[in-house]
Amino acid sequence: MIEYILNIENLSVKYTAHNRLFSSANKYINAVESLDLSIIKGETLGLVGESGCGKTTIVKAVAKLLRSSAPEAVVTGKAIFDADGQKIDLLSLSEKQFRKHRELIQVIFQDPYSSLNPRFTAGQIIEEPLYYFTKLNKAERKKEVGRLMEITGLKADFASRYPYEFSAGQRQRIGIARALAPKPKLIIADEPVSSLDVSVQAQILNLLEELKSDFGLSMIFVSHDLSVIEHISDRTAVMYLGRIVETGSSANIYKNPLHPYTKALLSAVPVINRKKKKEKIVLEGENPSAVKTGCAFYPRCPVSQPLCESSIPQLEEKLKGHSAACHFCAGGAPATPVIHK
Fold first, then answer.
1. How far is Cα 129 from Cα 180, in angstroms, rounded to an integer?
2. CB atoms within 10 A of CB 210
3. Residue 197, Cβ neighbours under 10 Å: how many?
4. Per-residue confidence (pLDDT) for residue 334, from 0 to 100
5. What is the C-alpha separation between 326 and 33, in angstroms, rounded?
6. What is the distance in angstroms between the CA of the first residue and the CA of the last residue of the chain?
7. What are the residues facing 246 on neighbouring strands?
8. In what order do the strands lie in the sheet with 4-18?
């Protein structure tokens, strides 16, 4: 029987778009629409898509961080979290109620510079969640800080140093140690390597894989880099304009992508071996600001048909364990394409 650590059901997030200066009427921008997503216990789910597709909005909604960054956001739906056997709808909790469970869901942020308090030492940054979420005394907290620094590749002697004294990769290790401190069940990594050098990226990814195994963690790994997602994730969910368009095991998605958008993304991944060179699929046009009817991808889809413009495709299983939201991708081969020019 499959056990899920998190089930997101029908999640929608709308942001207020303020109109002209002297207009009192506002309109809403749909950042996430009717999204369903499940994370199995012990797995890493890769969430991939272009910038602006809503990946970080999902992270902030689940981790209850939208109130501080976008207090006007309207969030509906459910996020059922397994808190040690107790099923909790995170979205229905108040800030005070969520505080009791916050240690179980920790976030590793994208920017290793702005995510650390420059007035705190590395030791103080890592100790803070220990102070709030554990019953350790001061001496025990200091010992635990040293242990967390060592297992994340930092010397315990560096605990008295400030963030500006560390490299970007080291700062991200501090962020990882801080996330591990309260012993979470679910880690949400929001593009944690996008601002790092390639060689450092590999080190951080390997570290996350080791820690996930050692601590028995589940993880949502958000990225726009498909090669990174392929390396670290067990399953992959591809996102486009606030909706999931394809899900499946990472191996299946990379070997046999079903959705035209996924195929276009994979065709853009650089290939070193010339014999395996793929034909690049170029998507023309810009992301539409709003598609009121039909598939959101149809204005850019190279294989769209009239049905795509009038009917929204649902995310359905097309192959065993492999789902896609496309009317014409059963078996991976869209029917009789109509090419946009």
1. 9
2. 12
3. 12
4. 43
5. 16
6. 48
7. 238, 324
8. 26-40, 4-18, 74-83, 86-89
